[in-house]
Amino acid sequence: MRIEFVVRAGLAMGLAGVAGAQVAPPPPGPPPATPKFEAPPPPPPVQAMPAVEVKPVEPDPAFESLVEREGDGRLKRITDRTVEEAALARNTRIKTEEQRAQIQAYLAERRERLEKVVIDNLDLLARIDGGELDNINFANRDETSLARALVEPLYVRPSAVLELKSRGVIDDPTARFNTQTIEREYRAAVLEDEKKQAGPDSGEQSKVMFRALMRQGYDEAMVTRRRLLLEAADRIDKVSQGLSGELATAVAAARGKLNGLSDREAQFGVILEMLRALPLEQQKQLLQRVVESR
Predict the structure, then answer these.
(1) Among 277, 270, 269, 275, which residue's Cα sits nearest to residue 288?
(2) Does the global pTM surpass 0.90?
């Protein structure tokens, strides 16, 4: 028993020594070598930006103003064509005869579209003639909405100048010169003239400005109707052929009034008076006959 205990104790001490020898850390090795520093390569040289040529802004050329006055100082109003057309005729950025011919061809095409708009909306033009826009309270949203609804069907978009630009007939400087210089000068003169006539009352001045804004939406249609009515006066014999009933009687009466009448404003008044006395569908029929008689 004593011998067994001594043997076991000796074995235990031997195993403990072996275990202790196994967990002892190894001696430290030599320190790692310090890496050699290498500088990064220099960045590539900056490429010089190409020089940008800055073209000087070309000043607007001289032009013949649309603002003309009577002997008593009153502004001469443009009635035989739109302000836009009148400005195009005096736009000195339009250099070539080819451009002028393209513009005239386009305006003839546009006139056909406008004539259809006018004939379809004669009743709206009559309401404007009757002063429906004259007393609109621009501060009242409902009233201004009604005014816009009255004008909107008469407005052909885009404008002639913008469409000519989109077709490449004129460039951007020419378009801007037309609208922002030539047209703007005339429209400002019209507005100033009307404000003087309205007097100093701020309410009346505001109405003038609102009407001027609305007029830009329907002015082209008004000019187109005027042209149709004057053409009716010129072609009254041809237009009257084949008519019967009330319409024939009205045209015959107008033809009698036009006999010997040379003043264009008076001729326009005769045809307009005749139209107003006719039912709407007969008005449309008559102006359609004018178009078809060409």
Answers:
(1) 275
(2) no
